[in-house]
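Worked example (supplementary).
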Amino acid sequence: MIRVLRPGLLTTIQDLGRDGWAGVGVPRGGAADPRALRLGNRLVGNAGNAPALEMTLAGPTLLFERDAVAALSGADFGARLGARRADAWSSFAVRAGDVLECPGGPSMARGYLCVAGGVEAPVVLGGRSTCLPGLFGGHEGRALRAGDALRLAPPPPTAAPRRIDPEFVRQLAPRGRLRVLPGPHLERFPPESLASLSSSGYRVSTQSNRVGVRLQGPPVRRLGTDEMPTEGMVAGAVQVPAGGEPIVLGVDCGTTGGYPVLASVITADLPELGQLRPGDVVRFGVVTLEDALEALRESERLLAAVPLVES
Amino acid sequence: MSPVPQTPRLSIAADHALRVALADRSDPAGCDAIAALVRRLEAASVPGIRNLHAGFGTLVIDFDPLVASHDQVAAAVEAAWAAAAREAPPAPRVVEIPVRYGGPDGPDLDDVGRLTGLTPAEVVARHLAPLYRVAFLGFMPGFPYLTGLDPALTVPRLPHPRVLVPKGSVAIGAGQAGVYACESPGGWRLLGRTTLDLFNAGREEPSRLRIGDAVRFVDAGGVGR
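After joint prediction of all chains, the assembly is encoded as:
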């Protein structure tokens, strides 16, 4: 059991999301940085989609009521296990009675606490992640609160504490640049819009969450004034509301929306989208579909070959 | 299905999504055609396809780009489209939704009357009259986009969306009708509320409504008439 002493800003149970229910309005959801979740799970010997805690900007304080092997991945939250520092991108043994504090760090938005065996959560509609828009899944369909008790699934055969090779971790550092494909609603924008989107820096607004990242910067012009009929939306879509400041849709975005989409972030860069925090400056770079798919394959190759070293 | 004399236009929506668009986007035949395409694609269970996002005369297909390509998904769409064109449209299922109008259940009923020049009772009568169709579900879990609203009830969305709309609120906005199937923020105007649980993730079929269903609202009392 893990007892939540302080919940942090927004801590939820997440796996890699659920598929097949967008037709009734349920978003894929899942970890905003799925790459970090997969790596954290690898560190403790779990399957990549085992449910874990996703923490946001300011993390929780947790009391472990039994021995466990845990790992932190994603943003460095400056975590401490009792008096010792608990490094990101490493696994460590936890003793019953230990308190893990994850105050938060200077860069990136989201960190993952993975526990060997996984945090227990019921399968709802094929997934264990918290669906905040639908108030179901994860822990009672909501963010964690002080006093919550989280059950831990039985751990797999334990491995020695390990860490991800720091050389590899450096390759995961944010680049401040999101690669995009043009469209699909190019006909709703003047021809220079894509160039203007990719020539400006945009600042991430405080009004950002798992649903979308709101950006502040030079407005993108649209053509015409008529509203677009509602249509399907996917994570990574760069929507442009009438005011012109783009919103990049996140993993919990509505399955449909009504703002035209100028471009879409490539799958290989969705983990970086999930790590943007208020105040970050982000730029967009237009690539081809071939580039996008090659970047994804390269990212998967790297992930498959990621070196774990004993610590 | 009743043939729609238009071939869908396919384009890239993302490196993991294909967009299907009909020329005439929101007429009833277009909605039927999208519903038929969705049924066919669901039945075909194409490898790699993760999610189908229907809209007004559009369908965005989300797939795993490590498993399928845009060309493969496009071929599946063309096959499904051809098969759908040969099938007779199923008679729509009719779902009745009981509504308590006005008062705390429908706090915007009087405003909608003022905006449309109708009495609250007339607003209710005009909202009850049509047999609506579920063009698609979206925006939030279980939210139906209904076509068939009386044009006299066309009102703008609220200038300042509510922070919290109660689950079950029956609403109109910008010429459309819908029901908030989950508690959420929202900018449509609330006429009433239903106790019918339109979305419950614990059920095998979590959504009471499916794309293509017919919907009739039924007066369940309330203070607004």
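Two points are worth noting when inspecting this output. Chain A is about 15% helix and 25% strand. The interface with chain B takes residues 19-26, 28, 124-125, 131, 133-137, 141, 181, 183-184, 227, 229-234, 236-237, 254-257, 261, 264-267, 289, 292-293, 296-297, 300 of chain A (CB under 8 Å).
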